[in-house]
C-alpha cells in the first residue's frame, strides 16, 4: 500500500489513515487505489474484525484533489462520471457491503466527497473542531459519494437541501445533535475514544454485527413486511454462529463472552 494511506492492524482493528495532510487528505488516484486496497483487505482478511478510518494532520479529507482538475492546464473537460464510476462509487460499495463495523474518526474538516465518505461509515465520531462541508456547490458540482442519499436519509429534505445548496459548514456538535453523526468528542480524546470503540466492536460477535449492519441498511428500501422476513432469515444465520453459542453459554455461566468472530 502506498504511503497516501497508512495501514495497521491491531487487536482486530484495521486502522486506515488518509495521509496527504498538506492537501487536507484530498483524493488523488494514488490515494483512491490505496484506500480501496485497504477496504479490499478488510473484506478478505478474517483477522480484520473492524475498520477505523481517519485522517492525518489537521483535516479529515477535502474530497477530490482539485489540482488534478485544473482547467487552466488545457485539454478536454474531464469526464467526472467516469472517475465516479472508477473510484468514488466502488469505494462507497466496499464500505457499505463490508459486513464488519466501519468506524470513522473525523479529526478535522471533511469537505466534498470527504464529508460524504464519513457519512457512509457505520459509526462516525468527530472532533469538536471538525466541520462538515458539502463543498460541491461552491465549484458547480453535485454532491456525490452518496451525499444525496445520506443527507436526506439522515437529516430530512429541508436540512439536506440547505447544506447542499449553501455549502455552509456544519460543526461537529450540530452534526451530532441533528443525527448526521454518532458523537462529537473533545479533539484530544477523539482517537482514544474511536480506537476504544473500534477495539470493542472488533472483539464482538463479528457475524452478528455484520448481519445487523446488512439488516439496517436494507430498511432504507424495504417495507416492514420485507424487513420482518429479512430479520427472520438473518437471525437464522446468526443463530448458527459459534459466537451465538458462546454468547448464550457465557450468559448462563455468568461470565464475559469470548467471541472469535465465527
Ligand atoms: O472530480 C471528480 O472526480 C468528481 C468528484 C468530486 C468529489 C469532490 O469532492 S468535489 C469537492 C472538492 N473539494 C472541495 O471543493 C473542497 C476544497 N477545499 C476547501 O474548500 C478548503 O480547503 C476547506 C474548506 C476544505 C478547508 O479550508 P482551510 O482554510 O481550512 O484550508 P485551505 O487553506 O483551504 O487548505 C489547506 C491546503 O490544502 C491548501 O494548500 P496550500 O495553499 O497550503 O498549498 C489547499 O489548496 C489544499 N487543499 C484543500 N482542499 C483541497 C486542496 N488541494 C487540492 N484539492 C482540494 N480539494
From TrEMBL:
Entry GO MF terms: isomerase activity
Signal peptide: none
Domain of life, per lineage: Bacteria
Keywords annotated in UniProt: Isomerase
Gene3D superfamilies attached to this UniProt entry: 2-enoyl-CoA Hydratase, Chain A, domain 1 (3.90.226.10), Lyase 2-enoyl-coa Hydratase, Chain A, domain 2 (1.10.12.10)
EC number: 5.3.3.18
Keyword Isomerase belongs to the record: yes
Family that this chain belongs to: Belongs to the enoyl-CoA hydratase/isomerase family.
Protein name: 2-(1,2-epoxy-1,2-dihydrophenyl)acetyl-CoA isomerase PaaG
Source species of the chain: Plastorhodobacter daqingensis
